[in-house]
Amino acid sequence: MDVLIQTLVAGVLIGGIYCLIGIGMSLIMGVMGIINLAHGQLMMVAMYITFVLSSYMHVDPYFSLIVAMPALFLLGCFLQKYLLNPLMKIDSILPENQVLMTVGIGMVLAEICRFIFTSDYKTVQTSYGGEAFFIGNISFNLPMCIAFIFAIVITLALFWFLAKTDTGRSIRATAQDKEAATLMGVNSTRITIITFGLGSALVASAGSLLIPIFYLFPDIGGPFTLKAFVICILGGLGSTVGAIFGGLTLGIAESLGATYVGMGYKEMVGFVIFVIALVFLPGGLVGIKRLIKS
What we know:
Blueprint: H1 2-32, H2 39-57, H3 65-88, H4 97-117, E1 132-135, E2 138-141, H5 142-164, H6 166-176, H7 178-183, H8 188-210, H9 221-235, H10 240-260, H11 266-280, H12 284-293
Antiparallel strand pairs: 1-2
C-alpha cells in the first residue's frame, strides 16, 4: 500500500508542473484555434535562461522565474506579432500555416540553443537538490514539493487574472467566440499577442521549476510539446480547467507506469492513455461534462 501511495504522491507532484505546461498550450489553442508545436522549445529556452542565471550568476532556479517568465512573455509576444499574426492575413493552400510556422520556430530555437550551448547535457546543482522529508513511510522530494507549491500559486494567479481583469475577460471572451468579442470592441489582434506571451510565460515557469530535476539539452523541448498536446486532449481542447485534470492524469499515469511497468515505459503509459482518450473520449473532460449535461 505504501508503494501505491508513494507512486500517487510522485505523480501528483509532477502532474502539478505538467498543469502549467498544459494550461499555456490550452490558452493559445483556445484563443487562436491552433496547436503551438513550439511550446516545448519555448520551455527549453526558459530552462537555458535559468541555467545561465544559476551557473554564472548563482541565482537560485526558483528566483530565476522573475527573469525567465517576463523574458518568454516578451519572446512570445514578438513571435505572435511578427511571425504568426501576418500569416492570418495571407491566403494559403494550407489552412493551418500558422501551425507549420510554430514547427519552424521550434526548430530554429532548438538549433540556436545547440549553437550556443552545444548538445551536451547540462544540470543545475542546488544545495537542496537531493533532500527529502517523510510523512510516515512516504517520502516527499523537496525540489518537487517546492515546484508544486509554485505551480499552485502561479495557476491561482492566472485564474485570478482571467476572472478579475479586463484583459483576462477579453481573453476568455475571445476564446469563447472571437467574432462576437471583436464586435463587442475587443481588439482580437492585441489579445492574440498577449495570449501567446502569457502561454509562453506559463511554460517558462514550468521550465524553471523542472530544471533542478531534469537534464537540459537542446532537444528536450520536443517531448514536452507532445506532453502538452496529450494534456490538452485529456482535458479538452482549449479548456484551462481541463488542462489541470489532464496534467494530473498524465503525471499519475507516468508515475504508475514507472513503478509497475518499468522506468523506461513510463512515457509509453501516458501515450497509451492519450490514444484511449482519442478513441473513446475525443472531447476529453469537456466532452464528459457536455455528455453529463445532455
